[in-house]
Write a structure and sequence with these properties.
Two copies of one chain form a homodimer. Chain A contains nine helices and no strands. By secondary structure, chain A is mainly alpha-helical. Chain A has one domain: Tetracycline Repressor, domain 2. In chain A, helix 4 packs parallel to helix 7 and helix 8 packs antiparallel against helix 9. The radius of gyration of chain A is 20 Å and the shape is elongated. The first copy, chain A, starts with a helix and ends with a helix. The relative contact order of chain A is 0.11. Chains A, B: InterPro entries: Homeodomain-like_sf, HTH-type_TetR-like_transc_reg, HTH_TetR. Chains A, B: Pfam families: TetR_N (PF00440). Chains A, B: It comes from Streptomyces dysideae. Chains A, B: Keywords: DNA-binding.
Amino acid sequence: MGGVTTVDRVPKQDRSRATRQRLLEAAVACLAAHGWAGSTVSVVAERAGVSRGAAQHHFPTREDLFTAAVEYVAEERSTALRALFPEGPAQDRRAVVTALVDLYTGPLFRAALHLWVAASNEEQLRPRVTELEAHVGRETHRIAVDLLGADETTPGARETVQGLLDMARGLGLANLLTDDAGRRERVVAQWAKLLDEALG
Amino acid sequence: MGGVTTVDRVPKQDRSRATRQRLLEAAVACLAAHGWAGSTVSVVAERAGVSRGAAQHHFPTREDLFTAAVEYVAEERSTALRALFPEGPAQDRRAVVTALVDLYTGPLFRAALHLWVAASNEEQLRPRVTELEAHVGRETHRIAVDLLGADETTPGARETVQGLLDMARGLGLANLLTDDAGRRERVVAQWAKLLDEALG
């Protein structure tokens, strides 16, 4: 019995996983393009080519869908960031700073920002996004410390890295309405130098 | 004739200016508390204790009201910031960095952020907010350069100050959902040190 059931079950799980993934990706794209007010489970289901019922089976509430979506894409991006520097701590700190700042200039950041801002006014969303934000923030900090080869036992090193990530977020915000790539590159070049001196 | 008209006109102008000011302040408070979706001319007029007709006399469209409001409060804050350091370039750069970062943690930043994020998805709002943002950004940069006593002819000095303001914006974002004051103070202390060394 076991054999047949396993054979039957695997493709079904695969299909379910693929559906879930399509929903998550559609949710982030929808949030980035239309903001929180324009992002409902129905809109996302249609965009993903999934029935509304199937979408609600995976994500019972709107909050479930969108927080899971931002978390999923954030994890994907963390994995991609580590993969850029497979040797671990990079010799070229400017390349690491550039890659970290890039995390905050794409559709994921745009989506996360919409969720973040909506959460500041919606009590139902707020605790979920606060938790998500803390989790993603810790993970990004850990990657930054690793790739920059920062020694957090040195006084100030932890705050230097934190300030860099705050700067990256601010640069993401500055890129929201206009293409800020030229200015951003010059700021990154200068602060990568200062950071390099500070971290030794 | 001249005399009487002037006497009559002045209090009327004063009343009009006071009404305008009440509307602008109510608009920022409304935006900070309810976001763009919850901010209409009617809601603001009621909050300010002004008739809807009077509000529309001052600000024909919703876009007019809210961009004018953010600009007005930003100018007020710039003036207050300069007043904190009446002697000009401050000896204590950490105090300047703290004051600059404080610009991004109050209701004004919250209001501006809502307007900013809404503008990224609304074509009608986008050019207005882009222009406002550029104007306010230039003014803040000018104040920062003055108060930090930065010499922008030195290579990298301009980008050092810009990166600091990007960090301040990122710190504002980090403060949106939770009280981030403790962490922020440590980041500011460390980055003020790096900035001080960089600017010489």
